[in-house]
Amino acid sequence: MTEEVEQTVALAEGGGDAAAVDVDDVAVRFRTRKKDVLALRQISLSVATGEFVAIVGPSGCGKSTLLKLVAGLLKPSSGAVRLHGDAVTGPRRDIGYVFQRAALLEWRSARRNILLQAEMRHMPGAAARKRADELIDMTGLRGFEDAYPHELSGGMQQRVALCRALLHRPPVLLMDEPFGALDALTREQMNIELNRIWRETGTTVLLVTHSIAEAVYLANRVVVMSARPGTVTEIIDVALPAERDYAETMGLEEFSSATTRIRRLLGAAPGAE
Amino acid sequence: MEHGRTPTVPAASAATVAGVAERARPGIADRALETLARSWRPLALLVACFAVWWVVSAARLVEPYLVPSPGSTLQVMRDKAGYIWHHGWVTTYETLLGFAIAVAVGVLAAVIMVYSSTVEKTLYPVLLFAQVVPKIAIAPLFIVWLGFGIAPKIVVAVLIAFFPVVISMVTGLKSVDPEMVQLSATMGAGPLQTFVKIRFPASLPHLFSGLKVAVTLAVTGAVVGEFVGANEGLGFVILQANGNLDTPMLFAGLIVMSLIGVVLFLLVEIAEKLLLPWHASRRGDAVTTTY
């Protein structure tokens, strides 16, 4: 295929033993005029290539900050972040980013919003359009590709944002509460689709979420963080197969033990959602 | 590539999307009716104003040399059509030139101010000062500096129209979604690419609301310039008519001047609809500012 694609694939595989994402004893301090806020402290996390890691924690614990560190949108006050063994020093191009709000350009159709990624990267047009078509089919956007953002539902908008983030086949996908603004049913559906997309693309995924069920259903491992200053309380292995049926998974012993454990860690009453 | 789903319907047609159907484009007669239904209230108010004016002058409630009748005003507009047309065009020309310069300089200044906070802090007080100085008070100075030609009129029009352009453009450029800018960085886009593809288009709705204010102010600016010293333009016509106690001509000048402002405003609004269809449709067709 195109050079761009070969490069990213090579990056994904050529990292050798280096972890896809390596966060090494990172701390982040925000300085405002009045206060000095320690947002993150002593965070260490290593994510293997192709792994799906979910991050849960109380509001304001610095989950989003952690994702921005990995993307190179923020600099750590101390410690180091590496992507495939390569130190992160500025905004990284070899990632895909999805925010809670779809952040689409209102004057572009769904397809042209997806292709923004290609335009910014100067990807060859024909290959980019073909890839966009594949993603439109994969995410169920077929029939909506010429609609404008204001004509799309929240779930559809988020699908467009996901396509845009996947267009350049990023080795690492960073998702910051991508389904937080969706209704419960749409959210479940998006979870099922994300599980399938992850299996089909083999991308390393780092997902920040408030939903414990979402974290356990989707991830290989769930990172539980403490309240601010955020740090890793525990990392929970989810012993479920990669391919997961939604309703079935919810009933499994593994699923309920993992969610119960996470709820305990987060201080919520057992069984409470 | 075939997608194998519902092969009987063309996949790309919006009409096939669940629950979404393309509405048929209304015909010309329907559209005219729609426009009428939307605009009859302001039209009725306008007609009512004319009726009051007519009654006041017909019943001789006010002397004709103070308030002319609508008939005599229309008479003057018909008899002196060439004269009014010439001076109206001069004022329009000054207005348009002033407006164009105000937009070019205003947009450029806004872009520079948004990208450099040093420039913004330095320039803002000067801008504010230029805005609060009464233009009528400094207009005579421009006559002294630039003579009786169109230059001082354009300068006053620029000065008066410039401020809303800058303010709206700065607001527009600053209101861009910060996550969109971060996203752009992860796409490897430089500042120029981010500006061209994201920041600038995102700021256009704000800019246009500033342009609508600016274009009507530009008319005022041109006329103020003419008041201070001119031998052409509607400002000149009104001053002359005033001096001769020729109230029908004075009223004719006022009406033409207002019409110029309204037409220019509508032109900006049409340009907005053509350039930003996404914005107009997001606002919803039911909410419209045109009458």
TrEMBL record, chain A:
Positions the record marks as coiled coil are: none
- Check the record and name the Pfam families matching this protein: ABC_tran
Origin superkingdom = Bacteria
Q: Does the keyword Zinc-finger apply?
A: no
SUPFAM superfamilies linked: P-loop containing nucleoside triphosphate hydrolases
**Where would I find the ABC transporter domain in this sequence?**
21-252
> ATP-binding: present as a keyword of the record?
yes
Q: Which UniProt keywords apply?
A: ATP-binding, Nucleotide-binding, Transport
* Example of a GO MF term: ATP binding
Q: InterPro entries per the record?
A: AAA+_ATPase, ABC_transporter-like_ATP-bd, ABC_transporter-like_CS, ABC_transporter_ATP-bind, P-loop_NTPase
Q: Can you say what this protein is called? A: ABC transporter ATP-binding protein
Task: Tell me the organism.
Answer: Nonomuraea terrae
